[in-house]
Structure formats: C-alpha cells, structure tokens
Amino acid sequence: MIYEIRTYTLNVSAVPEVEKRFAEAYEHRKKYSELLGFFHTEIGELNQVIHIWPYESVEHRDQVRAEVAKNEPNWPPKIQEFIVAATSEILVPFPFVEPLKPGNYGPYYELRYYNYRPGSLPALMESWSKALPARLERSQVALAGHVEFGEANRFIHIWPYKSLNERMDVRTQAAKDGIWPPPGGGHDRYFQQRNKIMLPSSFSPLQ
Predict the structure, then answer these.
(1) Residue pLDDT, tens place only, 95-123
(2) Who contacts 88 (Cβ-Cβ below 8 Å, separation ≥6)?
(3) How many whole angstroms separate alpha carbon 106 and alpha carbon 93?
(4) What is d(CA 178, CA 186) in angstroms, rounded to the nearest whole number?
(5) Is 8 part of any domain?
C-alpha cells in the first residue's frame, strides 16, 4: 500500500471556496478511488489544504489517474486559480504501522515532517517499532512512513487528537514516563523537524 500526500498552498482566504469546489468534484472522483483524508491547516503554514490518497501501488495510482483523466470530465476540481504552490509525496507506511480506517478520531490532526540523515532509516524504523506499542496505548497514529518519491530522506507521521489539550497531556506524560519519543532521535539522526495542526474538511473520511 502507498499513500500520496498532496499539499496545495492557496491564496489568502481561499480555503473555504477550494473545499467547496473540491467536495463537489470529489463526488464524481471517488468512484475511481477514495480519499483517506482531506484537511486544511489551522496552525503552522496557513492557507494550505492536504489531501491523502491510498493506492495499492505506484502502478495502481498511475492507472487510476489515467482512467480519471480519460473518463471523468468533472475532475480535477476547478481550483487552479487559487493554487500558489503544490507538492506531491508518495509515502510507504512503516510495516508495523496500521493506518487508520475512515472514522472519527480528531478533529485535530498533527502532521509531522522529519528529515533524517542519509542511511539512518533502518535504525529509525527499528527504534520506532520497539517504542510505538507503548505510545499507542496513549493515543492513535493515523499514518506513519517514509517518503519514497518526493523530498528525499524524509518520513511523515500524523496523529489525531480530540483537543489540543489532549495532545499536550499525552505528549507530556509519554515523555515523563520515558516511552516517547523513541531513543536515538537527536541531531545525529534528524536534521530538520516541522509540524502543522490540521482540521478535516466536512467530506473527509478521517474526521
């Protein structure tokens, strides 16, 4: 399984109109393949929408996109006038992480980008695989994996929370109890870390 994470940076104040048009077009698009989630940023880089598409493989993604382009006149959504910048990343989930199924887990989703030093991915995955079970007793992870196509040497993880207070409480207690973050996560392994808080759009399968 792979996940395409597409991020659109929009003109200021364009998010509501983009979500409206995307939702209308998605009603035609989803018969070909469905979203995992559609979000807009609340904290961090503002005026962004992030949509996450699951596919069986890169070949499946190419097949679906070709079929849509050929047969679906209502796609893509007519939002090009609002887009300032766009990125696409193909994420391969860690084998020990089961991505969430559609449902209500948020409404606050924290998306974290970590850029790791070349060659450190195997050790990173090993430390995560050992530490994650205890961390999942505190809160769920929506998706976690490394970027296969896109920005090199990056992995992405997304965590849902019922509130920002819950996020703070869970993270503070996990650190106090020594179960999270995984060991070995200092500057010797990572050279950049960023995050943003997102809220799901009304039509997002993840809420």
Answers:
(1) 999 999 999 999 999 999 999 999 999 99
(2) 4, 5, 6, 7, 150
(3) 20
(4) 15
(5) yes
